[in-house]
Specification:
It is globular, with a radius of gyration of 21 Å. The longest helix has 18 residues. Helices cover 42% and strands 18% of the residues. Strands 3, 4, 5, 6, 7, 8, 9, 10 and 11 form a nine-stranded mixed sheet that branches. A two-stranded parallel ribbon has the order 1-2. β1, α5 and β2 form a beta-alpha-beta unit. The chain is of the alpha/beta class and 371 residues long. α9 packs across α10. It has two domains: 212 residues, D-Maltodextrin-Binding Protein, domain 2, CATH 3.40.190; 148 residues, Periplasmic binding protein-like II (D-Maltodextrin-Binding Protein, domain 2, 3-Layer(aba) Sandwich), CATH 3.40.190.10.
Amino acid sequence: MTAPTSPLSLARPRAGGLSRRRLLQGGAGALAVGMIGAPAIAQARSLRVASYGGYFENSFKEHVFPEFTAATGIAVESVTQPNSADWLVTMQQAAMAGQTPTDVSLYGRDTMIKASRIGGLLQPLDLSKIPTASGLDPRFLYADATGPVGVGAMSWFVSMVVNPTEISPAPTSWAEFWDSSVYARSLGVSREFNSNFLDVVAATFFEGPEVLSTEEGISAVIAKIAELKPNVALWWSAESQMEQAMKNGDVVGGTYYHDVAGIMAADGFPIASIFPKEGNPQNYGSWCLSAGSEKAAEAQEFMTFSCLPATQALMARKIGTAPLMDRASTDLTEDEFAAVSGAPAITPNFEAYLDHETFMKESWEKMLSES
């Protein structure tokens, strides 16, 4: 999985906000005493938080960090990080030099697993000091041999999309894309091997993404994708390529980002994001505490704040990310929730992309190159 720099860079702010009163109503009341200390002490506290740059970081600086500071008195210094894979290299080099560029970083699941396997980069968290984390789906909490090291921050979906003026009725299964009588030379699919299309095919034609845990299973899934090639007009490597192809009518469906498809539809372009019966892949980012940080207490307060239903709703409205909890736990309307999330969800086989990275990438590239 890669960082969501493309879809999130285009997501637009949505209406809504988070007042102190709504913050307390959203679940912070029970921990207000713990989070909001004496002003004279709190004002001296600070935390460095790294997140993807551009619109994403700016939205955090404008909408999320000020609310956290207002609730806790902890000042936030925003640190720009590249996608989490590149950031991991930076953090490795910094650790070797005895430096700590930030206290808290945002890692994709696969990069967080890499960091755990490398060792010495992430500091274990005390979940008893992050009480609101219990409100997240357990799959968004990650622990390694040292203990809990990642708390889910937000998620995003890679979705099935179609042009509703060309495709009606809408497909109800990913399997329909293999129908050449409808989709010959008309689909756009990400050309990156780790774009989670393997997980889609595994969930549609096999027993699920677990099949990707072996080279035999990976080969079988890629062979099934090879059968789709006559229907693919565009193997896109940049989000803008798929966007333009949909706008021009060069493709009538394929894979794209759920939230950005919603933005395009709101602008009047014929595109619909669909959650078929198998689901769409759900990726997510986690907050992780740097091993060299001396701000564990502040970091755990920040994660407590991030896991609040009110904060998850704030990020959905202002950043375009999907909450890590059911809509009923938040005050999001059905339309607001649908703009960023949906069901069912496919959980990618994150470990497989690390354990079999070379074989998976080479097999994928070979499939694409063959006529």
